[in-house]
């Protein structure tokens, strides 16, 4: 059986270090992030990511998947820590924490790690500020069979607790890259790829537009949308019906409606 | 010129009462809610909703829309309060508050207020727990020309700060009703209406399914989905491609992808 370390004090340095992972600055320095729940940790394992540390609640119910995960993490040289539900709540910042959490090393998010031939659809987000939106876009990417998400300019942190939670595990299955616009565009143009965005500028109806794989679907900042220069660099600009008073959709919603349209078009 | 009351103390009872509106229990007792920003307040006015109280920051810039709003609220007998940016931040719970906020009386959310002949699409959410999702669904409803949102069973509060914010003003333009399932179903069946849900049970592909107006599109709870009984009561069950590891979408995303599909179908 794998050896477990027990932690019972709130002031234990491991507890402090884990809590600090909720803070972006600290997380960036440590290059580690936290994921909660057996389901997400199992998804991560299935996608080839094992946590460096597994934190278990004393109050957990036994589960074969949990036992398997524990054994694998132990075999890989990871650390296994057992603690009280109260301390786990403190670590995850949730009143009713899941019975298990894991600490992962951040992945490489260099653009060069993206193999565009691997998938027909790629999502691109520019200056996306809300980590919930970011996680939701990852989740949608998984659903439409996208290869991953490319984050342009200053976006929310994909490894924040909120983004990981909203991604429902897709943070482990989708490739993630971070780049400035002036790195992204030359990279895109160095290979095959159609850049698409929702726009009002010289745009055609989003339904039945001539999408082509690999299709890079780009959404902009929640309040400002995409800069004009970025829109003009697109190969295809599409427009969606807006029947009400508002003139825009939530960024994650726009990505999903367009993403499903592109999927249907490419599937034909 | 309309008379303004100045408030400069954090412990002023009005400040305390306004801050308390962020708390659901208090909000329900007062039957009042808070909205921030000139854009949303102008949308509200255009949709026929004037605030009972307007709270202005001393640091606001002059704006013709703001002046018009102030005059209208004053003429309607509403109260106008001027305060410091710090106090406004305290009231709205935001570090960088907008320069204006308004207090509205909650609307009637009885099912009988819904006139189904008014729109071809209606959104229905069951046990939706996240106020951000709720607001986003309202916003999507506005975009697809839905009549409103019917909240079934125990949902998040549509008048919470988070839901109002995420709705981007649609809380004022969409009808909102709250009902138990055993009130909703008889009400629905007493008139024309097709009940549609995403499902894996005996479902057909969501694209090109025989949607018919008035179409009631129902989404379920974020983690449990819809109860089986509710799914079985639907006239049409549709399924969406899920190409990845996950077996579901974010609730607001699912509502949007299906909502836009229904809009396209009904428009043909």
Automatic annotation (TrEMBL), chains A, B:
Gene3D superfamilies in UniProt: 3.30.1330.30, 3.40.1280.10
One of the record's GO molecular function terms: methyltransferase activity
Keywords of the record: Methyltransferase, Transferase
Tagged with keyword tRNA processing: no
Stretches assigned to the RNA 2-O ribose methyltransferase substrate binding domain: 34-110
Domain of life according to the entry: Bacteria
Pfam families associated with the record: MRM3-like_sub_bind, SpoU_methylase
Cross-referenced InterPro entries: Alpha/beta_knot_MTases, MRM3-like_sub_bind, Ribosomal_eL30-like_sf, rRNA_Methyltransferase, SpoU_MeTrfase, SpoU_subst-bd, tRNA_m1G_MTases_N
GO terms (BP aspect): methylation
Listed SUPFAM superfamilies: alpha/beta knot, L30e-like
Family note: Belongs to the class IV-like SAM-binding methyltransferase superfamily. RNA methyltransferase TrmH family.
Protein name: RNA methyltransferase
């Amino acid at each position: 059986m794998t050896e477990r370390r027990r932690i019972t004090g709130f002031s234990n340095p491991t507890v402090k270090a884990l809590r600090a992972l909720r803070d972006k600055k600290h997380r960036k320095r440590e290059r580690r992030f936290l994921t909660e729940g057996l389901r997400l940790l199992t998804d991560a394992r299935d996608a080839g990511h094992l946590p460096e540390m597994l934190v278990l609640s004393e109050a957990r119910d036994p589960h074969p998947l949990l036992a398997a995960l524990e054994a694998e993490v132990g075999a890989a040289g990871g650390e296994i820590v057992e603690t009280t539900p109260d301390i786990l709540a403190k670590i995850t910042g949730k009143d009713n924490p899941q019975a298990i959490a894991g600490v992962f090393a951040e992945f490489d998010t260099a653009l060069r790690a993206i193999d565009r031939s691997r998938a027909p659809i790629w999502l691109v987000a520019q200056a996306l500020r809300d980590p919930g939106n970011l996680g939701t876009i990852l989740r949608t990417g998984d659903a439409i069979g996208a290869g991953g998400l490319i984050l342009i300019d200053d976006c929310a942190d994909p490894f924040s607790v909120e983004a990981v939670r909203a991604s429902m595990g897709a943070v482990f299955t989708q490739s993630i890259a971070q780049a400035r616009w002036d790195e992204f565009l030359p990279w895109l143009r160095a290979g095959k790829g159609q850049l698409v965005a929702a726009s009002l500028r010289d745009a055609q109806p989003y339904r039945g537009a001539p999408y082509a794989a690999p299709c890079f679907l780009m959404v902009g900042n929640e309040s400002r949308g995409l800069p004009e220069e970025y829109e003009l660099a697109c190969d295809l600009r599409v427009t969606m019906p807006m029947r009400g008073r508002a003139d825009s959709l939530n960024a994650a919603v726009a990505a999903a409606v367009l993403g499903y349209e592109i999927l249907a078009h490419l599937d034909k």
